[in-house]
Write a structure and sequence with these properties.
OB fold (Dihydrolipoamide Acetyltransferase, E2P); five-stranded mixed β-barrel; 13 helices; about 35% helix; disordered C terminus; binds S-adenosyl-L-homocysteine; binds FE3-S4 cluster
Amino acid sequence: MKILDHKPADGTTKARRCFIETWGCQMNELDSQRMAGQLMQQGILPTRDPREADIILLNSCSVREKAEGKVFSRLGEYRLYKKESRFKKSPREIREPLIGLCGCVAQQVGERALKKVPELDFVLGPARVGELREVIRRRRAGERVVATGFPEERSFEMDTISREGEYKGMVTIIEGCDKKCTFCIVPMTRGPERSRKMGEILAEVRHLVDYGFLEIELLGQTVNHWRDPETGEDFADLLEACATTPGVRRLRFVTSYPRDFTPRMVAQLGQQANISPYLHLPVQSGSDAVLQRMGRGYSAASYYELVHQLRAARPDLALSTDLIVGFPGETEEDFAATLEMVEQVRFSSIYAFKYSPRPGTAAPRLGEPIDRPVADRRLQSLLALQEGIQRQLNEELVGEEMEVLITGWGKEPGTQSGRTPCHRAVHFPASQTEQLGGMTRVRIEKALAHSLLAQPLAPATAPPSLLPVLS
Ligand code: SAH
Ligand code: F3S
């Protein structure tokens, strides 16, 4: 690849490298791809070793306290690399790595991060990702930059996204969030909701299909609240337009907000066979009293009703959800209603979290804090209940033949991993011809609690050619 011959203009001899560490949701994953792409356009290649990097970016998550706490200890490690680099390189090559704090913690802490970590070079909020190159240029000129906040015009520069090593094409359709869930910090870190135009989204989907992606994943904090800013077309229209774009083999979207689902959207799930029979539909709690204090704007009954409609439209639909235990004031009865919800709906997987108070949110004022051992016990019993259900649901799939999207190499030598149409993880012996992002057919042989084991069937479709951004 000619890029490896790239000689930096500053007299150093080695190609420069960047190391990007990503925590959190899919939006952060895509933001990291956007940052990597901008750097690659300047000939700065990714590395897996932060010690060899000239630019280190930590794309952080602040949704729970634990993740946020880890940010500063991680930055502490990067500081050491910066100090080490002074000794390691020959004098001609001395160039300390730049360290940037990006993502939701960057937005939240802003300038304070520069004070706390003297070696930190810049702070870049999620709505300013498109400005990375400019921020680096300003830093090289001597300024310690804080680029946070929410500009009116946000760029979605698809030409500079590095999709290297990816098996799916992610497309942002709506940014930010206008909901006011009382536990959630995301509206503060990702800013007000902003939808992209349908035409722009479809152009990106076509580009990704041409590039070789078989699976397209539409992204947003409340993805089904999307509305074209000019025409007023809604998410049902967008689903139809994306699903009928030639070459889209598998279409997924995340995260849907229960109250924003309309009958037309439900109907699309039934009508478009290439929309995955899988939906992530966070419910958070099974108790009406808790849902009300969370400000979610729906009841347990209306969630059950939506699940019923969705499954009527798409009987093979697998559902996953997010649940919070130990929300302020949560009683044993409230928690029992959550267990009941899990038992009734039979989710294919759940993401269960202990409530974590976040700065600037209303929830801490809305009820008595729950003691840690109580929250721990609730989390454990929720996970234990789910594990049994999940194993049972997985066992029902044994013997079925399915098309699998290949997501990577397995842990065992000679195996690959993939995702079924219902988004379950599956592991199977590798075939010679299959590559990341390709499809293959398998028969499910064995069910585990968190994944499936399978055997490959007949020859698969031609693998996609995943071209590097710069070749
Ligand atoms: N709509 C978003 C939600 C972002 S937060 C999305 O795209 O996923 C992801 C999940 O984290 C939420 O659904 C919620 O279950 C959990 N969460 C958010 N804030 C939390 C908090 N303060 N404590 C514990 N869990 C939280
Ligand atoms: Fe957070 Fe609720 Fe929006 S969970 S991201 S405020 S929909």
